[in-house]
Amino acid sequence: MTTTPSTPATGDPLIRLADVSRVFPARSRQGAAVTALDHVDLDVRAGEVLGVVGYSGAGKSTLLRLVNALDRPTSGTVTVAGREVSGLSERALREVRRDIGMIFQQFNLFASRTVWGNIAYPLTVAGVPKDQHRDRISQLLHFVGLADKAHVHVEQLSGGQKQRVGIARALATDPRILLADEPTSALDPQTTAEVLALLRRVNEELGVTIVLITHEMEVVRSLASRVAVMEAGRIVELGDTYDVFAAPQHLATQRFVSTLVEKGPQPRALDRLRERHAGRMVTLSFRDGDASPADVFAAFIERGVTFELVHGGVEDVHGRTFGHLTFALTGEGAAVADAVSYVATLVEVTTPAPAAEIGTEAP
């Protein structure tokens, strides 16, 4: 009997992990079991780009393997496009996997085949008639910008071109979901930007839902609409990309975001700033919906407080801005205190601590 894959009801997630754990047994009698995923709940909405971030061993790759059913959870359920996949037969899984494309950090292409042959492979495996291959492969080659490389062997391609082939191959069966495992880690910055632009087109023009594993926050900022931060097999923070960058809550998230965005000067840098600038140092954090910098400046001026910007900048995430600006404030002591107290009702205000107070050796 042939079964027809179901689709999720309107508003339901395209991918859902419900209370999922994956425990790998000990490799020896003396060893201990390893919990790769620990009671994870996660919904992925149709049409979004979800970035999954975490350090090595956080459980990111295990999560991907459960979504495409290359592995099965120890407990909990994984549902893809309305089907709970962990209990499906191998034949039924082939139907599910046809709806899931996969790209990899090291490309995983067939070196003995041409670009055309690599893209044709998943069509052959999926049983697509050969008379339909030509049009589909041609469309994909034009989409990824490699129409002139169709009959070139992949070892002759650059890293960026290889990843474009990988993307075309992943899209061959017209999947609804694309799983991307560190897709830019092996690429230089310029090529990374080009590949991310292509993945953005895959999402926006083709409507493909993307789950992206990465440890590079610039990749997340550029591409992801939401971010899940993982640590020790758990999702410790999940939210809109803008919110996660502008106001990270968990310590692990703060460490990742700080690789791109400094909330304020590091302690040693602050000490050097104090040597060059008089006055009280405060860091103001601006977000969309808060008072504008102009409102803050007006408050300082009205109270006779002189202000000098000494550190910081404004960041952009998908057209929304936030910033962390550190000022040196000078003026009569009570006026400065009053200004800071009032400004704290408009935006977040913090006082950066010098190195001597926290015993750090930060540069």
Q: How is the topology of this model organized?
A:
Layout: E1 15-24, E2 34-44, E3 49-53, H1 60-67, E4 75-80, E5 83-84, H2 90-97, E6 100-103, H3 115-125, H4 133-144, H5 159-170, E7 177-181, H6 189-206, E8 209-214, H7 217-223, E9 226-231, E10 234-240, H8 241-246, H9 251-257, H10 267-276, E11 280-287, H11 293-302, E12 306-317, E13 320-330, H12 333-343, E14 348-350, H13 355-358
Parallel strand pairs: 3-8, 3-9, 6-7, 7-8
Antiparallel strand pairs: 1-2, 1-4, 4-5, 9-10, 11-13, 11-14, 12-13
Helix pairs in contact: 3-5, 4-5, 5-6
Look at the structure and name the CATH superfamily of the largest domain. P-loop containing nucleotide triphosphate hydrolases
> Averaging pLDDT over every residue, what do you get?
90
| CATH domain fold name of the largest domain | Rossmann fold
Described by strand count, sense and barrel closure, the largest sheet is: 6 strands, mixed
Level-2 CATH architecture of the largest domain: 3-Layer(aba) Sandwich
What is the alpha-carbon Rg in Å? 25 Å
Number of helices: 13
The neighbouring-strand order within the major sheet is 6-7-8-3-9-10
Number of domains: 2
Principal-axes geometry comes out as elongated
Instruction: Classify the secondary structure makeup into a structural class.
Output: alpha/beta
Q: Supply the CATH class of the largest domain.
A: Alpha Beta
Sequence of secondary-structure elements = EEEHEEHEHHHEHEHEEHHHEHEEHEH
